[in-house]
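# step 3/5: fold
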Amino acid sequence: LGGTASASPFAALAMPAGPQLQAYDRLMFTARADRPTRLSVQLRVPGGAAGERWHRSVFLDAASRQITVSFADLRPRGATSRPQPVLAEVQSVLFVIDTVNAEVGSNGRIWIDDVKYAR
C-alpha cells in the first residue's frame, strides 16, 4: 500500500455481482496469503461517489482454505441507507486490502480462487 494514510490507499479486486446474486445467501471462495492478512469482502451498490458498501473481514494466511461469507453477517462500511444490502441492487463484489487492516508501505500477495455464490 503506497502513498499516505490520509490518501486512503487500497488494493482491490472487483467483480460484477450479476443478477443471480439475489438467489443466494452467501459467497464462497478459496484463498491464501503469503503472510497473515485481513481481507475485507464487500458488496457494493451504486450511489454517491463510491456507492454504499457492506463488508466482513476475513483472515488469510499461507494455508489455502475455503472461506464462506454469509450476506447476513455483512455490516455497513461507512454511511449506508440500510443496515443490510438489497441483493437485487448489488453491482459489485470486492476483495479489499486497505489501511483499516494493513499499514501504509506494507506489501504481500493474496490468491483468490473458485469464487461462487451458495445457499
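# step 4/5: annotate
The mean pLDDT is 89.
# step 5/5: archive (pending)
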